[in-house]
Structure formats: structure tokens, C-alpha cells
């Protein structure tokens, strides 16, 4: 059986804390890691990525240093990372239709969820 990791990428520590609690309710065995921006998450994946793990990523768009779009682009450029074990859900307070459309065609992106996360959102992603 494949290991699973929940990776929260958001510069809001309260969002990360609340999301962690919701995810633990849905999947108590899931390992959860939080990163404050895309750069930190990319570094984490470069150092820890394995084909034996499935990565559920909740990604904010608007963050300092490296935003969500830049993270997705950079992730796609890493040769050692294959897309079949990465699932990104963009979680944003943005209701901008262009963001939602942009997310649609991107590699790794499986969905777009509006903040705040509900238990139903978490069940559909991690359940």
C-alpha cells in the first residue's frame, strides 16, 4: 500500500492549523506537513519526494516568496517528480474566475476549493 502525505502550503498558520484538524478527523492516519510558502514546500519535496508516497497538496495562491502558480510551474520542471502520485487542490479566498480557469488546465491540479475549507471539501479530497 502506498504511503500518503498531506502537504499544506499556505502563509496563514491559522488556516494550516484548522485544516490539519479537519484532515485528522477524515483520515487520522495521514501524515500532515505545513509549509509557509511555495519555496519551502518545493525544498521539502526535493529533499523528501519518493515514488512510494502519494502527495495530497492543498495550495494557496497568494503567498510571499513563491506563490501557488510559481510553485506549480517549478514543480513541473523537476525531472525526478512524476505527476501520477501528486494531487494538488488549490484552496483560495480568490473568487476570480480567471484564477479558477487557469487552475483547470494545469498539471497536477485536480480541483479548486474556496476558503474556508469545509469538512465536506476535506472528505472529497482525502476521503
From TrEMBL:
Keywords: Phosphoprotein
Pfam families: Response_reg
List of residues that carry 4-aspartylphosphate: 60
Gene3D superfamilies: 3.40.50.2300
All residue ranges annotated as the Response regulatory domain in the record: 5-127
InterPro entries reported for this sequence: CheY-like_superfamily, Sig_transdc_resp-reg_receiver, TCS_response_regulator
Protein name (Swiss-Prot/TrEMBL): Response regulator
Organism name: Flagellimonas yonaguniensis
